[in-house]
Design a protein that fits this description.
The termini are far apart. The protein is of the alpha+beta class. It contains 4 helices and 7 strands; from the N terminus they run βααβββββαβα. Strand 5 and strand 6 form a beta hairpin. It has a 5-stranded antiparallel β-sheet. The chain has a two-stranded antiparallel sheet with strand order 1-4.
């Protein structure tokens, strides 16, 4: 049932049916993280969940598993494994290996812009900081 689909062959590091691939290697191979050590660090930090469970880097993912990856900026990627690969591939091939169910990012205007200061004015004083917080709605 879980056999490798065509469109990449053995050159993409495909895995035969029934096998599994380390989760840190898979999220790196499909370009969800920049480096494999970053994938392992995300797993160790509890930022990667497979089917709702926090997993270690060596956890084996299978076709059909749901992988949730929380990035440092707070954005969460939710993908369903469609194809297992071990080696990093180009972006067009990588997107064929998963189904992206990620929530859309928040609209740009929803994020409050940081206070813009004139060049050369130095660090804000306590009074300036409190004024900026008041303007942004952080009454304190």
């Amino acid at each position: 049932m879980a056999t490798e689909t065509s469109g990449g062959g053995g050159s993409a590091g495909g895995v035969a049916g029934g096998a599994s691939v380390r989760v840190d290697a898979w999220i790196w191979a499909v370009r969800l993280v920049k480096t494999r050590p970053m994938g392992a660090a995300a797993c160790k930090g509890g930022h990667v969940r497979v089917n709702g469970e926090r997993v270690k880097p060596a956890y084996g993912v299978h076709v059909g598993d749901e992988v949730r990856l929380r990035h440092a900026d707070g954005h969460e990627r939710v993908v369903v494994v469609k194809r297992l690969i071990r080696k990093r591939v180009g972006p067009p091939v990588a997107v064929e290996c998963y189904v992206d169910n990620s929530p859309p990012p928040p609209p740009r205007e929803a994020v409050a812009p940081a206070g813009v200061r004139d060049r050369g004015t130095g660090r804000p004083t306590k009074r300036d900081r409190r004024e900026m917080e008041r303007l942004r709605g952080f009454e304190g």
